[in-house]
Specification:
By secondary structure, the protein is α+β, with helices and mostly antiparallel strands. It has helices spanning about 10-20, 65-75, 90-115, 115-120, 120-140, 155-165, 170-175, 185-195, 195-205; strands spanning about 1-5, 25-30, 35, 55, 60-65. The two termini are about 30 Å apart. Glutathione binds near residues 32, 53 and 65.
């Protein structure tokens, strides 16, 4: 398998899932802003959509969309418990989280990340995103992870996205300018995920360790 990814982007979630599931894949780094492959090559030749993550299986099958790639990987190793079994209510709960994260948080960040180009839209986008994070903070009350005691790929996804609000590299490149420090459950959860050995390894590999 080959995973096209960009450090610190949403593909970080898939990178975490790979390690948590103890799976091997060749990592191919992409500059997602310039759409070039590290070491040379036009990323648009790999995918006309131009975005990461992208998984290419050994038989050439291409799988796209982070939440789907993450589920595919988790299902290769059910014993990792990164995704509950298909057909169970818990699986639907996981998909509920993934859809929320992708549409409400991931894409909710976009106007902030591209604030200069977004103009006034950022004034409505920021409170909306903050409201979503506030709700997330409430959901994490008394819980170790999003789905309870077990770390799932929803945690990996939220971790990558929450990093966008915290990371100074984001502030220097984009203008996210969103303060999550008041959300205590979210902060506790974030530190708990960050301390996981696989997450530490991913952050180090992506050049984002403290
Ligand atoms: N719907 C896609 C969106 C992926 C996405 O937005 N990737 C960003 C990085 S977080 C990217 O590669 N952006 C470059 C671009 O859109 O040109 C998914 O969920 O996998």
């Amino acid at each position: 398998m080959k995973l096209y990814h960009a450090p610190g982007s949403c593909s970080q979630a898939v990178h975490i899932v790979l390690l948590e599931a103890n799976l091997d894949a060749e990592l191919v780094e992409v500059d997602a802003r310039r759409h070039v492959i590290k070491g040379g090559g036009d990323y648009y030749e790999i995918t006309p959509l131009g975005y990461v993550p992208l998984l290419v299986l050994d038989d050439g099958t291409v799988l796209r969309e982070g939440p789907v790639i993450a589920q595919y990987l988790a299902d290769l190793k059910p014993q990792s418990a990164l995704a509950p079994a298909h057909g169970t209510m818990a699986r639907y709960r996981l998909q509920e989280w993934l859809n929320f994260l992708t549409s409400e948080i991931h894409k909710g960040f976009i106007p902030l990340l591209y604030a200069v180009a977004a103009g006034k839209y950022v004034d409505t986008a920021r409170p909306k995103l903050l409201a979503r994070f506030k709700w997330l903070d409430q959901q994490l009350e008394g819980k170790r992870y999003l789905m309870g005691e077990t770390f799932t790929l929803a945690d990996a996804y939220l971790f990558a996205l929450t990093g966008w609000a915290k990371a100074t590299w984001i502030k220097s490149v984009y203008h996210a300018d969103i303060d999550l420090s008041g959300f205590e459950n979210l902060q506790r959860w974030y530190e708990g995920v960050r301390a996981r050995p696989c997450v530490q390894t991913v952050l180090a590999r992506e050049g984002l360790a403290d």
